[in-house]
Amino acid sequence: MTGRGEPLMRVRLRVEQDIFVARQLGREVAREVGLEQQDQTRLATALSEVGRVVMADGSDAEVTFTVRSEGVSTAIRVAVERRSHGDEPRLRAELAHVGRLVDKLEVENGETGTVVWMARRLPASAPRLTRDRMDEIRAGLSRHVPSSPVDELHVQNQQLIAALDEVRSQRDDLARLNAELEETNRGVMALYHQLSEELEETNRGVVALYAELDEKSEQLAAASEAKSRFLANVSHELRAPVTAVIGLSRLLADGASDPLTVEQERQVELIRSSASDLLTLVNDLLDLAKAEAGRLEPNWEQVDLRAMFGQLRGTLRPLATRPEVDFVIDEPAVATMRSDEVLLARVLRNLLTNALKFTAEGEVRLTVREVGTDLEFTVTDTGTGIPPELIERIFEEFYQVPGSKALSGKGTGLGLPYARRLAAILGGALRADSTPGEGSTFTLRLPAS
After folding, report:
1. How many CB atoms lie within 10 A of CB 18?
2. Cβ distance 206 to 99 under 8 Å?
3. What sections of the sequence does the record tag as coiled-coil (predicted)?
4. What's the pLDDT tens digit per position in 319-369?
5. In this structure, what DSSP letter does residue 90 have?
């Protein structure tokens, strides 16, 4: 991303009414840079509270919005600078509860005054903030004119002053207009104070609510981590005995001193086949547990797509045993891309294997094309298809479409969830489109560099 240190926007806080303007602009900036709706509310609420506390002693302040790198991630940073020094401990104490709404909140002694700055990390799904995109956001924000009762009153005051200049000689009318203006001011200020009290009460409620949500989120994260550890431990413990069963069944079939009867050979083959299916399930569980626990770190390198497609064509060709099905892997138009070769190959192999299992006749095809700065891999088949209401459910662990039956091999219900998690780890996304009775298309979209 370019232009990361250049401010997106600045706004001055001279009177308390400007806090409403800052809150509205905070939400607008958060939306433009890609924060989710919940985090937009968090940032706007935090900015409103900081502005109220900083201006409590009557000092002016300036709010600056920027986007910067925070380690390996990107964050929106909001600085509120007060034009006076001192009293930082009081500000830290009064703003302690606000820290729950953002990822970072600091109170510093700047060159021209006290600076309170806060940061909120952008989600991985946020669009890339290129220099052109940053310039586009700045242009949009510069045209954004927040409206409030105070803004409307200011406009009316200017119109009234112009009218009074024209009828200055009419003292009676001037007095009457001044009285109406004062009455309007009192009404607007009463409304403002009421709104300010309601806003403070709402902010306290929002802070308490988000504190509860954060606590629940930590509990869910701990439960997910415990589940991942359980799956990994169980998979490790099961792999050794299952492998032993496979080896012993092979010895029994091939190395017995006395020939086995036909029935015995069938039963031994059934043992070996069942153990192989169980080992596949154990390996899938272990891979899924690693992905969920965040233990899969991509090894970024230049990947030769032509070599990868050739390897997939050779290793998966034995699975395409039905003559009624054409198995086609097109030559990639793009020679290389920056990705993890092992993880990318796993995703494509998973999608192709799944397509071959559910396609009785027609075609299974893999293609890749450029879409802007991304590459789009598509695996299409002419299989049984998936009902529209079940498209997202096929990416749930252990879920299989009711009534569907693999034509070859047995499914575990873990392949597609694992493929989607790998796609996210590689910085992209995996989606499915399907028409029952006509076939399915799985699309993997990844950044090319």
Report:
1. 20
2. no
3. 150-226
4. 888 889 999 999 998 889 999 998 999 899 889 988 988 888 999 999 999
5. H
| Per-residue model confidence (pLDDT) at position 260 | 75
With contact defined as beta carbons under 8 Å apart, do 336 and 296 qualify? Answer: no
What distance in Å separates the CA atoms of residue 436 and residue 383, rounded to the nearest whole number?
9
**Secondary structure letter of residue 410 according to DSSP:** -
What average pLDDT does this structure show over 119-132?
87
75-78 contacts: CB < 8 A, separation 24 or more? 75/103, 75/104, 75/119, 75/120, 75/121, 75/122, 76/29, 76/30, 76/33, 76/35, 76/43, 76/119, 76/120, 76/122, 77/117, 77/118, 77/119, 78/26, 78/43, 78/46, 78/47, 78/117, 78/118, 78/119
CA nearest to 188, candidates 26, 24, 72, 20: 20
The pair of three-digit structure tokens given for residue 9, joined into one six-digit string = 């926007």
What is the rounded distance in angstroms from the CA atom of residue 293 to the CA atom of residue 280? 20
Closest CA to 229 of 164, 290, 307, 160: 290
Cβ neighbours of 50 (radius 10 Å): 30
Of 140, 132, 139, which Cα lies nearest the Cα of 373? 132
Task: Kindly give the interhelix angle for 131-142 and 18-33, rounded to the nearest 10 degrees.
Answer: 150
Least Cα distance to 440 among 372, 386, 394 occurs for 386
Phi, psi of 337 (to 5 degrees): -155, 165
d(CA 97, CA 208): 9
Quick check: 332 and 348 in contact, CB under 8 A?
no
* Residue 427 Rama label (left phi>0; alpha psi -120 to 50; beta): left
Which value, to the nearest 10 degrees, does the dihedral of the CA atoms of residues 137, 143, 147, 153 take?
A: 150
pLDDT tens track for 398-424: 777 776 666 655 556 677 888 898 999
How many Å apart are CA 320 and CA 314, to the nearest integer?
11
Long-range contacts of 93-96 (CB under 8 A, 24+ apart): 94/53, 95/49, 95/50, 95/53
Reported pTM: 0.44
Q: What six digits make up the tokens of 430?
A: 């995996």
